[in-house]
Each structure stands twice: as structure tokens, then as C-alpha cells.
Design a protein that fits this description.
The chain has 10 helices and no strands. The protein is an all-alpha fold. The longest helix has about 40 residues.
């Protein structure tokens, strides 16, 4: 009786493990397909074939094609949030410290530069393409992704507030942060144009150094006018 229970226990565990792997594989394949084709053009049959799963697996795990699409958004948002979480936590802790304005600016610059390096080299290209599509025609998936960036945006607004003396939730504060993030996102959203204009083949260490150096100068100039 004891060995039967053990067998059943192992069977259930293995089944659950296989089920989770299938679900994860479907999401990873769907990331690529949705990123390349968009929601409407993406075929669920193509997704299950590439994932080596059954056609019924999408309604079983996600309810529908839309459920899978939103699960992809959750997957991308959660991964990006987790990868950048240490930088957010460090920045939040430094905000609690007693710092001069120059020290606060240095802490903020470190935070922004870390985000820039992450965007230049740490993001799966398919994730970027998926988010890029949502920027032009936002759906519920965009809300899911955007919510994952909320902690980073909140910390950034606190820094801008500290440097300008304006409330963190003031429109001017948010817009100033967005203008800084836009400098970084340009290298991701307009990646091909940036590389072509700069006559670069990719964003290697030297290219990244130049980007972050210019970003640093721009941010310093932006807050010099706020003094």
C-alpha cells in the first residue's frame, strides 16, 4: 500500500511537471509568433505545431487565443520586471538615505544607465517586437506589461521629484521622467536607424559606452536647468 501511494505520488508529480513544461513551451513559441505576425495574423495551429503540442492545448491551458496572447504579455512583463528588480530595489534604498542633490543625481544616473545597458543588451528581441506592436495598437496585453513597469516608473518619479522639488505625481515630473526614458528607448525602438546612422554593426561595449556617456550629459543638462 505504501509503495502504491508513492507510485501515485510520483505519477502525479511527473504529470504536473509535463503539463507545466507544455504550457511554458506554448508561451515561448507564442512570443515569437505573435512578435513576428501580430495577434490577428498569428495562427494557433502554427503555435501548437512549433510547440509540439495538441491543438486543444491552447483552450486547455489558456482558454482561448486571446488568453494565450495575454499570458505572453504576463510572461514578458514578469521576466523584464524580475531582471530589473535588483536595480529598482537599490535605487529605492538610496532614496531613503540622506544625500546631497549631487549625490541624488548620481544615484539616479546609475539607475538610468543600468536601464540603458539592460535595454541595449538584456532584452530578448522578440519581447521588444511584441511590446512595440502593443505601443501602436494597445490592448489588454499592454496594460499587463505596463503594470510590471510601474515600480520602475514610481522610483524614477521619486528621483525626479527629489531633484526638482515638484510632487512625484505632478504631470511635469512624469513627463520629465518619460523624456529621459525616451532617450534610452530610442536605441531599442529605432535600433536599426540608430545603428545605420552611427555606422555601427551592433551595440557592443564601445557603442554602449558612447550611448551612456551622451545619456549622462543629457540628464545632467536637464536637471541643471531645474536648479
Amino acid at each position: 500500500m505504501k509503495s502504491t501511494k508513492t507510485k501515485h505520488g510520483l505519477g502525479r508529480s511527473a504529470c504536473q511537471d509535463r503539463s507545466e513544461k507544455t504550457r511554458h513551451r506554448l508561451i515561448e513559441v507564442a512570443v515569437e509568433v505573435f512578435a513576428d505576425l501580430g495577434y490577428e495574423a498569428a495562427s494557433t495551429r502554427t503555435i501548437v505545431e512549433h510547440a509540439q503540442a495538441n491543438l486543444v492545448s491552447i483552450p486547455y491551458y489558456f482558454g482561448s487565443k486571446l488568453g494565450l496572447y495575454n499570458a505572453v504579455a504576463e510572461y514578458i512583463g514578469a521576466n523584464v520586471s524580475e531582471m530589473f528588480r535588483p536595480a529598482v530595489e537599490r535605487a529605492r534604498e538610496r532614496l531613503k538615505e540622506s544625500q546631497s542633490r549631487e549625490q541624488t543625481l548620481e544615484s539616479f544616473l546609475e539607475f538610468v544607465i543600468e536601464f540603458a545597458r539592460f535595454m541595449l543588451g538584456g532584452v530578448n528581441p522578440a519581447w521588444g517586437k511584441f511590446v512595440y506592436r502593443e505601443q501602436f495598437d494597445p490592448t489588454e496585453a499592454f496594460d499587463i506589461i505596463h503594470s510590471k513597469f510601474a515600480p520602475m516608473i514610481a522610483v524614477g518619479c521619486e528621483y525626479v521629484s527629489s531633484l526638482t522639488g515638484r510632487p512625484a505625481n505632478a504631470p511635469e515630473t512624469r513627463m520629465k521622467l518619460l523624456s529621459i526614458l525616451a532617450m534610452v528607448k530610442l536605441t531599442r525602438v529605432d535600433r536599426a536607424s540608430v545603428l545605420r546612422t552611427m555606422e555601427w554593426k551592433s551595440f557592443g561595449p564601445e557603442e554602449t559606452r558612447i550611448v551612456t556617456e551622451v545619456l549622462t550629459d543629457n540628464v545632467r543638462s536637464l536637471f541643471a536647468r531645474s536648479e
